[in-house]
């Protein structure tokens, strides 16, 4: 039976500080051991933590060269310098880490959509085949119960046997997302949840409701952590 660890935060400030500290610890562990990767999530929720951590790491990125890989749970199919790009939004953290370009696995949205998805999948596969462990994988949770860019049961069905997938997003954009098969390879999957209107989705995640896409997407994981800003559970 899957183990679900839930941690609640009274304020958004507490959540942001804890997430920055968790990421910093994971990065430090990668620097010590090598052969590690961290998956960043998109959306607005993690951005304050990325910025907090970036301020701490301005001069320590060089120590991580050859040690750490970063990848993304998903991204919109937009130019990499678009304000809608998860990669672009994370640039303060990436710049502070100063990793070589080949150690940052972004979705190459300059390629045609399906080719971009296959390219991302191939690079994820190569990362795993070289023995890299994804020690921490951040995930978000939408009010509709989605995670990464897995929005519908149909996305989950098409994801079988894949590590990355091109999808149609409800906002009218296309996207590329990791799949449940890849999420199952993450040592520590971590949901970070803030914002309003997510009460039902949070309850479904905590109760392992199979009708929630995020539950289906992580059902092969031995355990998940769920970090919740309490305002997300008690919004009007």
Question: Notable features of this structure?
Answer:
236 residues; globular; Rossmann fold; 10 strands; three-stranded antiparallel β-sheet; seven-stranded parallel β-sheet; alpha/beta
In short, what is this structure?
With 236 residues, the protein is an alpha/beta fold. The chain has helices spanning 12-33, 47-56, 86-89, 91-97, 113-129, 153-158, 180-183, 199-206, 213-217; strands at residues 3-9, 36-40, 68-72, 74-76, 104-105, 133-139, 164-168, 174-178, 189-193, 223-229.
Count of helical regions: 9
Radius of gyration: 17 Å
- Domain count: 1
CATH architecture: 3-Layer(aba) Sandwich
**Major pleated sheet:** 7 strands, parallel
Average pLDDT for all residues: 93
Detailed description of the structure:
The protein has 236 residues and is of the alpha/beta class. It has one domain (3-232): Rossmann fold (3-Layer(aba) Sandwich). Helices cover 35% and strands 22% of the residues. The strands form two sheets. It has a seven-stranded parallel β-sheet, with helices on both faces. Strand 2 (36-40), helix 2 (47-56) and strand 3 form a beta-alpha-beta unit. The N and C termini lie far apart (33 Å). The relative contact order is 0.18.
């Amino acid at each position: 039976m899957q183990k679900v660890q839930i941690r609640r935060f009274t304020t958004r400030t507490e959540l942001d500080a804890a997430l920055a500290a968790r990421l910093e610890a994971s990065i430090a562990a990668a620097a010590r051991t090598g052969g590690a990767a961290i998956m960043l999530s998109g959306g607005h929720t993690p951005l304050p933590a990325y910025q907090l951590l970036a301020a701490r790491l301005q001069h320590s990125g060089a120590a991580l060269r050859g040690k750490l890989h970063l990848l993304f749970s998903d991204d919109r199919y937009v130019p990499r310098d678009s304000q809608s790009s998860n990669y672009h939004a994370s640039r303060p953290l990436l710049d502070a880490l100063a990793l070589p370009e080949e150690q940052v696995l972004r979705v190459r949205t300059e390629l045609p959509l399906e080719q971009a998805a296959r390219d991302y999948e191939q690079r994820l596969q190569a990362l795993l085949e070289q023995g890299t462990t994804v020690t921490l994988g951040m995930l978000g949770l939408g009010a509709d119960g989605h995670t990464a860019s897995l929005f519908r049961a149909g996305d989950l069905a098409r994801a079988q046997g894949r590590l990355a997938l091109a999808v149609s997003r409800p906002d009218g954009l296309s996207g590329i997302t990791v799949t449940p098969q890849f999420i199952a390879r993450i040592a520590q999957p971590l949901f970070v949840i803030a914002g309003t209107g997510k009460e039902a989705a949070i309850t479904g995640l905590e109760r392992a409701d199979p009708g929630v896409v995020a539950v289906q997407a992580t059902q092969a994981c031995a355990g998940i952590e769920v970090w919740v800003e309490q305002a997300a559970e008690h919004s009007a």
